Amino acid sequence: MAEEDIRASGTPFSLSFSGSGFLVLYQVGVVQSLLELAPELLRSACKVYGSSAGSLIAAAVVCGTNLDDLKEFFFASAKEARKTILGPLSPRCSLLANIKAVLQRTLPENSHQVASGRLHISLTRVVDGQNVMVSEFSSKEELIQALLCSCFLPIYCGFIPPSYRGVRYVDGGFTGLQPVSSLEEAVITVSPFTGELDICPRDCPAIFFCFQIFNGSIQISIENLCRISYALFPPSSMVLNDIFSQGYQDTALFLCRNDAFGTNYFDGNFRFASMCGKTDLPRSNGTLNSLGRRVPRYLAPRFLPGLARWRKQQFGLRDPLSKVLLQLYVLPARMPAFVRKG
């Protein structure tokens, strides 16, 4: 979304959560950051879009679901998937059934009333492969069915797609990876993949080309290829926790970059590291002059390292694809200097 759009006073805006797979923990970190630093942004969003796993986060934002419950569920699901060689493809892994159970437990009874008109879920219709955006729900069960349809990845989640109002749908990410209803609409886009988006990782060199796939923007880079692998086959809990922390960090930096809402999101007592489980960073009264507000120095544009550089934690990877990609990533650094320079 253009910076001048969100700076315009009184301009209605929406939030859009992309499909993400097990990288949904990045979006949990984004929402956690917004709840703590800019809760009025979440409350004032007129529409909240969600696709695939991102629809679960969109529903949590609209219905006020406890984020700790969702975070615990996603960590538990990833841990369960890593117990077998096939991961989530194992017959023992009932991912969709587990999602249904957690939705029934965490969504309030009036969730369909709260969600109608504000929550927009991206679905892909099986009959013709067209994208369908649903936003009206007559019951809690109907809302849950819509969310299950948006999360259903064929073969990965089973072979028989679930239905919504008598029509079968599959993963909304196939036709609307980053769902929006209008190009003229002011939307804050959130994705765990680097691209031309508002809140996303920015650890890839800018020279890499961005391309449109499934109506979403993704940058061609080794980091993003690793993320795609992680989205389908979850990495270790340490890496997932870093993904959550990066979502929190990237959102804080988004608020710093965009002096959009006339609100002082940070003060001299703000300690970003406390959210990420790190309490050893000193307090600072440093100032970012370009923003004209007090911000800790360690919040000046600084990002977590890329997925391929995360503190040698990649020993926990099990899927072969990630290991190959990581070797390709570090190969140039091991080559002699005259070879790297060409």
TrEMBL record:
Motif GXSXG: where in chain: 50-54
GO terms of molecular function: triacylglycerol lipase activity
Motif annotated as DGA/G, chain positions: 171-173
Keyword Chaperone assigned: no
Gene Ontology BP terms: lipid homeostasis; triglyceride catabolic process
One Pfam family of this chain: Patatin
Keyword Zinc-finger listed: no
Keywords: Hydrolase, Lipid degradation, Lipid metabolism
Active site, renumbered: S52 (nucleophile), D171 (proton acceptor)
GO cellular component: cytoplasm; lipid droplet; membrane
Domain PNPLA: 15-184
Listed name of the protein: Patatin like phospholipase domain containing 1
Taxonomic path: Eukaryota, Metazoa, Chordata, Craniata, Vertebrata
